[in-house]
Amino acid sequence: MTDTGSPVIEAKGLTKRFPGVLAADAVDLTLHRGEILGLLGENGAGKSTLVKMLFGVYDPDDGEVFLNGQPANISDPGDAIDQGMGMVHQHFQLVGPLTVAENIVLGAEPRRGLFIDTKKAADDVRDLSERFGLDVDPDAVVEDLPVGIQQRVEILKALYRGAEILILDEPTAVLTPQETDELLQVMRELADSGVAIIFITHKLREVLAATDRVAVMRDGKMVGAAVTEGATQESLAELMVGRSVVLQIEKDDATPGDTVLEVANLRVRDDRGQMAVDGLDLTVRRYEILGVAGVEGNGQRELIEAITGIRPVQDGHVSILGHNATGASPRSVASMGVAHIPEDREKDGLVGVYSIADNLVLNRYFEGGMAKGGRRQFGVINRNAEDLVARYDVATPSIQTPVKSLSGGNKQKVIVARELSSSNELVIASQPTRGVDVGSIEFIHQQLVAERDRGAAVLVVSAELDEIFSLADRIAVIYEGRIVAVIPAADATREEVGLLMAGAGAH
Amino acid sequence: MAVATPARPTTSSRSTFNITPWLIAAVVVGLLIAAWSWKSGDTEAVFGRTIRASAPLILGGLCGLISERSGIVNIGIEGQMLIAAFAGFMASSYTASAGTLVSILLGIGAGMIAAALVGAFMAWCAVTLKMDQIIAGTVVNIFAAGFTSYAYIQGRTQAGYPQWTIPGLSDLPIVGKGFSQGPLTYLAFVIVVLVHIALYRTNWGLRTRAVGEHPGAVDTVGVSVSSLRYRNMMIGGALAGIAGMLLIQSASVFNRGMTNGIGFISLAVMLFGRYRPFGVLGAALLFGFFNGLQSQLQFRQALDIPPQFFGMIPYLLTVVVLAVAGLAARPPAAAGQPYEKG
């Protein structure tokens, strides 16, 4: 909050090169005691590289770091921890089967003789959690705890090691809106007690709500710094992308037509054999976008995989345009006019080592003149690729480039191009803009709305409320494998949907 | 909240009591008493043999447990045992002039060091080279079988191990023969307790349990994943080394291929014991019992069928256990995966 004395952390000219990429280019950063700094940038902008250098995971090729005015020598995370830094990783670094206390003291265990002093460990954790208002039960097993509480454990882990500088890497990505609000409040309390916080995110709303200052990165460079007061979402987005962007997509009201997808009493098991979709009903009609909102892991993945034929259906019914599609093969579902933009594009959407041209025909390499008598027709395939790369604005040196070398946003555009370029009755898009830069988000959203306006039924699954509210005509909230509410988007509030996502509507 | 929290068996931090092996042990005890009242001599022989046969399985199982809890799948236990038996026997044999006790101790030391070095080799494959761990283990097994057969010199001998008969206990009915064993056999049972305490009460144990579940969690608090895995593979190797020396203790001589699958059965023991030291103990006793039973049945020609059929019992049991218990046991989450930083 206040700028008193020398900064707790000051980085000057930090540079990191990876083969072929300048991931961080002479980046400066200052952070004061009790201050929350928002570190904003798109995926691949260099935020993670920067904090990994601060935290000793990467060795900077150039530049210096000062801690409390002194040159710091940090060669691995252990050094960083010793010098008062703590990091809460985007993917929790917690051991599921161990208790909260065990996770927190791991690596810095209080000892009595040869043994761990388990009582002291639990007491220390209890003290800490009272002091910072982070309520946890030291004896609970971590894997039984909700994600929001697990995150508290991560924060406590850093505080237990005496962290005065806390780096939070995309901490809200896995939280419900309510949990996010709680976290932002906890961050403010920590800052008031003197902790300096670097808050990494790409969510503009959270930056505005929680930070004192903002630093914006783009293409490995620090492109802007601002005091949060007075900044707007638009001004920050422009800094991030380098041009002005449309955050709220323009679309007309929906005029829904016939039912295209009908799911009735569907039950689907997850990989572990648990019933992940448990009696789910859903309808999507022509000329509308149904947004399925929910915290990840509530059956969204299994629902989509069941509809698209990838995962077996235990019970219930799926029909597409009145035809029974329950348990149909993926190809026969696709041939009913279903486009699928999968949740995990690397794993389910693309073959990384294949060229863009080949990836663009993964769903139709066998038809439409792409192959004759088993021989692939490269003329047709390449013309198709040239056309789609141009129409869908994929930035690539060539259509023969392996798809794995593209950025996240361009990979997603390849999938969108492939799936949306044939005329579809139903478009299913799972987390369509996850890890995608703001510029591409805008483009992908426009494509989905265009599909709706053309007459397709569109089903969007997203954990991002902003995305749901921006796209959906109706919002279906999924919780523990069921749709607990369906609300017209015009009548829905973030608070209401957030509560439903957290299970408030399930009884 | 939407975190799936199904009730499932865990390799939990608390050494939650696992009833299955103990239940089976209780049934076995009941049967033993019944059998003893029917044929006392045979029953006592079976019991003595149970203890003797279970000891190498205990240590092999603990070797697998420590490896896998650290995140490395060790299928090279068989090879580690064989190399230890060979190295230990050779060491004892060549130092015979130094006296019985010294040569035996040198043999045990050589066996433990040899197997620990093999463990270090597997750690190098798994941690440094990030090789497929199954292949690393297979390499060890094939090398061990080939090398020891090739390098073995026929006709060498070594001093016999002493037999420690515990006064009083060894006179008890049924279990008496269990208290007349070589020193390494007793050691195996002591090591179960030591490993249990170390795993659940010490820093090392907490870190070991963590590194097999989520190495990133260990790395990010400043503890080196590599050195912990190297160290644990060597500790596990040393235990497999003692297991190998147990075979020398029984036979007093090295034989080609003398491990005879014990290292592989140890993996079944580890699995059936659900990656817990006392679970391993219970499972090893069960396997040891069937081993004792089959050898007694073969010896007595009790039934009019070829003795080889009885010889199959322990191996059949292994297959059954791997099929049934393998479903229930939940291995450490990171077992088998090389750790990638960052």
What does this structure look like?
The complex is a heterodimer of chains A (507) and B (342). Chain A is an alpha/beta fold and 507 residues long. Chain A has 3 domains: 9-241, 3-Layer(aba) Sandwich (Rossmann fold), CATH 3.40.50.300; 246-337 and 423-507, 3-Layer(aba) Sandwich (Rossmann fold), CATH 3.40.50.300; 352-422, no CATH class. Helix content of chain A is 32%, strand content 27%. Chain A has 17 helices and 24 strands. In chain A, the strands form 6 sheets. Chain A has a 6-stranded mixed β-sheet, with helices on both faces. In chain A, strand 9, helix 6 and strand 10 (196-201) form a beta-alpha-beta unit. The mean pLDDT of chain A is 89. Chain B has a two-stranded antiparallel sheet with strand order 1-2. Chain B contains 13 helices and 2 strands. Chain B is 68% helix and 1% strand. Chain B is globular. Chain B has a single domain (47-156, 180-328), classed as ABC transporter involved in vitamin B12 uptake, BtuC (Orthogonal Bundle). Mean pLDDT of chain B is 88; it is low at 1-15. Classes of the chains: A alpha/beta (507), B mainly alpha (342). Chains A and B meet through helix 2, helix 3, strand 8 and helix 5 of A and helix 7 and helix 8 of B.
Low-confidence stretches of chain B: 1-15
The largest pleated sheet of chain B is described as: 2 strands, antiparallel
Number of domains of chain B: 1
Q: Please give the CATH class of chain B.
A: Mainly Alpha
Global Rg of chain B: 20 Å
Distance between the termini of chain B: 29 Å
Mean pLDDT of chain A: 89
Query: What distance lies between the first and last C-alpha atoms of chain A, to the nearest angstrom?
Result: 43 Å
Radius of gyration of chain A: 24 Å
Sum up the overall morphology of chain A in one term: globular
> How many strand units of chain A?
24
Named CATH topology of chain B: ABC transporter involved in vitamin B12 uptake, BtuC
Give the helix proportion of chain A (percent range): 25-40%
